[in-house]
C-alpha cells in the first residue's frame, strides 16, 4: 500500500493544474495573473508584434507557472516587444526574439517595476537574435536580472550590435544582492568589435555596488568570438563563481573588475593563436583562479592570458583596488603570449599586487620568459610550478622543468601532469553542442538571384539611383565610359555593392553635382552598407552648379552595423570649403575597415580622410582599421588624415592605422596645423612616406598616445616639413631623414 502513495500524491497535485492557449498580450497577462501553481499557459504559435508583456504570478518550486509556446520556437516576438517578469516561480521557455528591439532598458527584465521583482524565476530555451537598437550608442541589455535565485539557461544569443552588456545582474538594492542567480548552459554566438566601452557579454554588478556580494553562478556556457571589448565577462561584485565555461577565440577575457572573493574555476580558454585573445584579469582582494586551461592565447597587456593588475592608492570605487591575498593555482598555460603581473602600471596605478600565491601551475611557452613582473617587489609568491623540459630560458625561482605527457581533449593534444596544472582528466570541457536552445536552427535566406553587373554611360547617369535601389547585395555598377557623370542627388548604399569604372578606360569617369542644391556627398553609406569604389573621380565643384561637400561619407542616421569601405585608384579634388573633403565618417558610425589605395587627393580646403567625429572623449572612435597605401595628397589647406579617439578607456583595441608609401605635398601649412593627426590611435605606423613642404606651420605628424600604445614612424623623408610630435617621444624609428 505504501508503494502507491507517491504516484497518488503526484496525481492529486496535477489534477488541479490547468492549461490555456492565448493569442494576444492582454489575454496572456490576465491568464498569468489568475494562474495557480502548476498551470501552463500556451502562447499561440504566431508572430507577436510590438508585444509589451508583464507577467506577474506566484507558483511554487514543485509547481511553477509555465509560459510556453505551442511548439518550441513557434512564437516569434518582433517589432518593439519586451517581457517583464514579476513574482515567484515563473517559467518562461521556448521563445524567439528577432527583427526588432525593445523600447525599454531590457528585452527581458526580471522585474515589473521597483516594487515587483522576480525571485526563483527562470528564462530557458529562448533565442534572441537581430534584436539590437538601431542606434549604435543607444544602450540596453537583452536580459537584466533583479531579485534573487533567478536562472537564465539553455538559451542562444546572437551578435548584439548596440551598446550595453547582453546580460546584466543588477545589485541596486538589498533585494537584489546576495542573489544566487544562475547563468548556465547558454550559447553566446559572436559579438563584433564595438569600438567603445559597453560591449560586454555579461556584467555582474556595477562599481557603485561592488562592495556587495552577488553570489551569481556563471557555469557551463559557450562564448564564441565575443569580441565586443576587452571584458567578455565583467565581474563587478563579490563572491561570484565563474566555472566550467568555454571561451572560444574571444578577443578579450574574464575580468574580475570590481568586488572581492570571486572564484574562477575549470574554464577552457581557446585562443588557437588568434590575435588579442585573452584569459583572466585579476583586480581587488581575495580572488581565486584555479584549475583553468589557457590555450594559445595571444593577447598582451590588458588582454594578457593572466593579467594581475596594479592598483591605485586610495582608489575610488570605479578605479582599481589593489590585488591582495589572491590564489592562482593548478592552471595550465599552454603556448600563450603573456603572463603579466603588474598590468597597467603607470603614474596612477602604483600599488603592485601583494601576497599573491602562484602555485602548482603548468607553463608551456616558446618564449625564454615564463612570466613578466612589472614591479619585482616580492608581492608574488611562486612555488611548485613547472615548465616543460625544453624551456629555453633561465628557470625562475618557484619553477622546475619536467617532462610532460600529453592528453587528447576535444581534438587538442594538451600537455598534462597529474600533479601540476589543470585536472584535464576530470574537467567537463563544454562544447557548444551542449549549450543553447535545442530547437534553434539559424535561418538561411536564399538570394533572389545571383549578383550581376550593370553598365551605365555618362548620358545614363540619372538612372544610377534607381539601379542602386533595385540592386541586391554583391551587385556591381560599372561606369562604362569616360566623361562627366552629372548627379543631382546623393547615392545611398545600404547593402554590399561595388561601383567601378570599366577596366578598359584610360581616364577616370568624373562624378559632379549638376543640381542647384549642394550635396552632402556623392555617396552615403547607411546601415547595412558596404562599398568598394574603383577608378572614379569625385569633383567637388562643376561650372556654376552647386557644390558637393564631400566625396563619400557615412550616414548621420542611426547605424548599428559596422561597415567596410574600400577606395582604389580614385581621385578627389576641388572641395573649396573648410568643412568639405574626400571622406567623412559621421558620429556614432563605425567602420570595420577603411582601405584607401592608389588614390589622389588634391586642391581641397577640408580634410582628405576625416575620422574625428567622436569628440566625447569616452574612448569612442570611427574605424577599427584605417589603411592608406600608395596615395598622394597635394595642395590641401587642411590636414590629409585626421583620426581621433579621446579619453583613456582601456576596453578597446583600436584604432589600427597603417599609412604606407604615401606622398604629402604642400599640405596644411597653416600655423599650428597638422598633416596627419593621430589622436589616441593605439596601433599606428607611418612608413615609407614623403613629406614635402607640408606642415610647415606646425607638424607633419601628431600623436597623442598612452604609454602602452604601439606607434611608429620609420623610413620617411621630411623635406621642409613640420616636426613629428608624440607625448612619450617613442614614435621615431632610426631610418627617417629631415632636410631643409
TrEMBL record:
Superkingdom of origin: Bacteria
Key words, A-Z: Lyase
The protein's Enzyme Commission number: 4.2.2.3
Enzyme class per UniProt: lyase
The protein's name in its UniProt record: Poly(Beta-D-mannuronate) lyase
Species of provenance: Pedobacter africanus
